[in-house]
Write a structure and sequence with these properties.
The protein is of the alpha/beta class and 128 residues long. The chain is built from 5 helices and 5 strands.
């Protein structure tokens, strides 16, 4: 089960902006558009899971914890420093194929499944 995931596309909807405006006029606590935009920008620096990857995580029973997310973020940062674009991150929970420029896990597999597969279209590997 996924404990903490981020959607592939993070956008601010018109409905969210209207809600922000209505809470401002009613006197309730409001974070405002600037704070909302800041949250979206901060989240864009963190690893996200594509819909496909989120489905695979769920199907395969991979536990996505804060620790794993931190490890993935660090691995992606190291890969980015080396100029990697598509990387396989291999750890105790399995393998995560990540598009580095977009910080998006595109698919994942368990350790058992790794033994019977070939990784293609990657330019780097990071062990966590």
């Amino acid at each position: 089960m996924i404990e903490n995931t981020h959607p592939l596309n993070q956008t601010v909807s018109v409905q969210q902006l209207k809600l922000e405006r209505s809470t401002l006029t009613t006197g309730q606590v409001n974070t405002g558009f600037g704070a909302l935009l800041q949250n979206v920008m901060e989240d864009s620096d963190k690893v996200r899971f594509s819909k496909h990857a989120a489905t695979r995580v769920e199907q395969r029973g991979i536990q996505v914890t804060e620790s794993l997310l931190n490890d993935l973020n660090q691995a992606i940062g190291k890969a980015r420093e080396k100029g990697a674009r598509d990387v396989v991150v291999i750890g105790e929970q399995g393998a995560f194929i990540v598009n580095v420029p977009n910080n998006v896990v595109v698919t994942t597999m368990t350790n058992q499944e790794m033994k019977q597969n070939i990784f293609t279209n990657i330019d780097s590997a990071v062990l966590i």
